[in-house]
Design goal:
By secondary structure, the protein is an all-alpha fold. The protein has 20 helices and 3 strands.
Length: 394
């Protein structure tokens, strides 16, 4: 019994050199295979990779095109190379070349089944990039019952947003949202677009219905309440308008600056302008970042006179001084200054005003795109409701 246990412990030690030799041999075999495959890769392929690293897409496209031509002459498979070269052409804006390349690949007898679906998907993107949206849409619709259905639906959604076809966009987003990723946020914005168009055409019932649908889908949709307040105000339902605008405080208080003047107008229409001004002052005292100084000054000037309006705004500026506030403060105080100082203060106002044009603006919270104009839909990253509703110093 003791001898058998001894050999049981000794066996792994004796077999260790054998295992080492087998591992060394396997590594040598794998290395030879790798070297053999590396020698079979055309030189132009490495040139194209090097050009891409150097960010020279033109040289990369030419080198990869040469590789495709060589492989085709040798009657070798060029499926992956065609796809890559087509994408490179599309990235460079050479849409005709991309379309021709992918169409030629479709004609190949080897392009069947999943490969054919992939090539069609790339061709659809070529058409979309070239501005041939109708042809792109047809391809992506044809791919709905294939393995490329989900990515095709995503591109269809972007096409419908680009074309402002909000009804189709809603359907596409609903289909995409059936999985783990929801599209309630985007769908609510699409209903807001429909509501805004209906309001523009004085179709108040439609606009009201669309805003309620947007709020049903996303109860925190501030834009829906803004439009709903506008709809009620147009129909002289001023108390309902006040309720809609005031609801924004609980949704996202930052958007109160967009509702400020509308909210005051609703109170004014009810014969309660002072109450409306008090509400705006309360918002500014609670949320100093709101961009309501101009509205408060104009309405206070109308109701209470210049002296009280000036004092009200000065107190608000001192609570949270910034470029916009200092600019307005200088404007308010310049008339009371010693004439010897007025020229210098006016120069300071000019400098601050020019600086504000460069640095005070709206910014997308997602991609940081900056603009002097507010957008609900960022033109840079295509995200919804990502712009800061109050201008900020960049």
């Amino acid at each position: 019994m003791g001898e058998s246990i001894f050999w049981l412990w000794l066996a792994p030690v004796l077999l260790l050199p054998v295992f080492f030799a087998m591992g060394w041999f396997a590594a040598r075999v794998d290395m030879r295979a790798v070297l053999k495959q590396a020698k079979s890769v055309p030189e132009g392929f490495y040139k194209s990779l090097d050009a891409l690293v150097e960010r020279d897409s033109g040289s990369a496209a030419r080198a990869l095109s040469d590789v495709v031509a060589q492989q085709s002459d040798a009657k070798q498979s060029t499926y992956e190379l065609h796809l890559t070269l087509g994408k490179l052409y599309r990235t460079r804006g050479e849409h005709n070349k991309a379309i021709a390349l992918h169409q030629s690949l479709l004609d190949s007898p080897d392009t069947v089944s999943a490969r054919r679906e992939t090539v069609l998907f790339e061709l659809g993107q070529d058409f979309q990039a070239a501005g041939l949206v109708d042809r792109a849409e047809k391809i992506f619709l044809d791919l709905q019952q294939t393995g490329m259905a989900k990515p095709a639906k995503k591109i269809l959604l972007s096409i419908y947003q680009q074309d402002r076809d909000w009804q189709k966009a809603i359907v596409s987003a609903q289909q995409l949202g059936s999985g783990n990723q929801g599209y309630q946020f985007e769908i609510a914005q699409f209903y807001c677009e429909l509501a805004q168009a209906a309001l523009y055409h004085s179709e108040y019932d439609k606009a009201h219905s669309f805003t309620l649908e947007a709020l049903r889908i996303n109860r925190k949709c501030t834009r829906a309440n803004l439009i709903l307040g506008d709809v009620e105000q147009k129909q002289q339902n001023f108390q309902a308008a006040i309720a809609a605008y005031s609801a924004i405080e609980k949704q996202n208080h930052e958007y109160l600056s967009m509702a400020g003047e509308r909210l005051y107008d609703a109170y004014d229409a009810l014969g309660k302008p002072q109450e409306g001004l008090s509400v705006l002052l309360g918002y500014m005292q609670t949320f100093p970042n709101l961009d309501l100084l101009h509205v408060i000054y104009e309405k206070s000037l109308l109701l209470n006179g210049e002296q009280q309006a000036n004092q009200t705004v000065i107190e608000l500026i001192r609570r949270k001084p910034d470029l916009q506030g200092v600019y307005r403060l200088l404007n308010l105080q310049i008339s009371e200054l010693n004439p010897m100082w007025r020229t210098d203060v006016d120069m300071m106002r000019g400098v601050i005003g020019r600086q504000m044009q460069k640095t005070v603006m709206y910014r997308c919270r997602h991609c940081h795109f900056k603009s002097q104009v507010f957008f609900w839909h960022c033109p840079a990253c295509n995200k919804w409701e990502t712009f800061t509703p109050n201008r900020i110093e960049i």
